């Protein structure tokens, strides 16, 4: 086969829907910008929720359960601590990642960590993504993966382009996470006006990006979208990736966004708070299991996190 025949033609996805992330209260005194999971953007399988959170002193997410999904927490500023009833404990700083698969059940707490000097206290800012689990993996054993920023691979495929590879494959680099179900997660920075990159994405997968700072255009002729927008991408036959560009006249702040893709699941979704299952009966069973401490929640009765005790 010739080199020309072996070369794959790049065919970019485009934006099919843009949804502003609206600020809303969540947890105990925390604020999140939520897009996926709101009425304007549901049924984006396998993705259930996307929050861009900011946690100030006195707020947080004390002890609470999960079943049937994966939660991915990616820190950008400040620090956030985690503790669960499996005995896992961790503290996340800027660029650190926690990838927790709840499976049949887990109870945990997520609380910010602040400098004891109020003048130096920095809010905990990051992203949390909820990913549905395939029906046959809903009741798997829970698992927990954590990685520090310094240990997460970054690739620079072109001048002015930096991609942190958390999960999936980008320009010869494979992310450290081995997720249950298909899910790719990248932090992309376009550091110069006009910087552009084509990121391959498996054909047929659901894909979106969330703009953290700056402006970005999608596709060869796409208009720029500003920060705090979730951009859902097309998924047409033959589209094998997405062309991402920082506008040439964008000279103020760096363009940064997370690009996330996942294999859609052909299954019913019944969500009752932190429980994500497939039928109403399973939702009722999840509530009973948590309350009675069985079928995955055996360690829940009497368990109290240390990090959440200030809010009890």
From TrEMBL:
Residues that, per the record, bind Fe cation: 64, 66, 108, 110
Gene Ontology molecular function: metal ion binding
InterPro entries: Pirin, Pirin_C_dom, Pirin_N_dom, RmlC-like_jellyroll, RmlC_Cupin_sf
A Pfam family matched in the record: Pirin
Keywords tagged on the record: Iron, Metal-binding
Location of the Pirin C-terminal domain: 185-296
Superkingdom as given in the UniProt entry: Eukaryota
Keyword Transport (UniProt): no
Cofactor: Fe cation
UniProt domain Pirin N-terminal: residue ranges: 31-131
Co-factor: note: Binds 1 Fe cation per subunit.
Family that this chain belongs to: Belongs to the pirin family.
Full protein name: Pirin
Taxonomic path: Eukaryota, Fungi, Dikarya, Basidiomycota, Agaricomycotina
């Amino acid at each position: 086969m010739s080199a020309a025949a072996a070369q794959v033609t790049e065919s970019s996805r485009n934006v099919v829907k843009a949804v502003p992330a609206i600020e809303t209260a969540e947890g105990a005194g925390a604020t999140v910008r939520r897009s996926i999971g709101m009425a304007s953007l549901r049924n984006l399988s396998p993705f259930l929720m996307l929050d861009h959170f900011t946690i100030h002193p006195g707020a947080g997410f004390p002890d609470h359960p999960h079943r049937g999904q994966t939660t991915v927490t990616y820190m950008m500023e400040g620090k956030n601590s985690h503790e669960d009833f499996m005995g896992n404990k961790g503290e996340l700083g800027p660029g650190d990642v926690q990838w927790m698969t709840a499976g049949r059940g887990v109870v945990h707490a997520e609380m910010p960590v602040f400098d004891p000097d109020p003048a130096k206290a920095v809010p905990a800012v990051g992203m949390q993504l909820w990913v549905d689990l395939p029906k046959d993996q809903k009741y798997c054993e829970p698992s927990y993966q954590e990685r520090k920023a310094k240990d997460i691979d970054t690739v620079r495929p072109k001048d002015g382009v930096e991609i942190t590879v958390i999960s999936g494959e980008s320009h010869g680099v494979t992310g450290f996470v081995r997720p249950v179900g298909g899910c790719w997660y990248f932090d992309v920075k376009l550091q110069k006006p006009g910087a552009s990159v084509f990121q391959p994405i498996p054909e047929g997968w659901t894909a979106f990006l969330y703009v953290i700072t700056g402006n970005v255009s999608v596709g060869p002729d796409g208009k720029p979208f500003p920060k705090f927008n979730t951009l859902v991408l097309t998924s047409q036959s033959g589209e094998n990736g997405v062309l991402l560009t920082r506008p040439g006249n964008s000279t103020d702040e760096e363009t940064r966004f997370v690009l996330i893709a996942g294999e859609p699941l052909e299954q019913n979704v019944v969500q009752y708070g932190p429980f994500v299952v497939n039928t109403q009966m399973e939702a009722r069973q999840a509530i009973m299991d948590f309350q009675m401490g069985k079928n995955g929640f055996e360690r829940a009765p009497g368990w109290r996190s240390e990090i959440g005790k200030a809010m009890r």
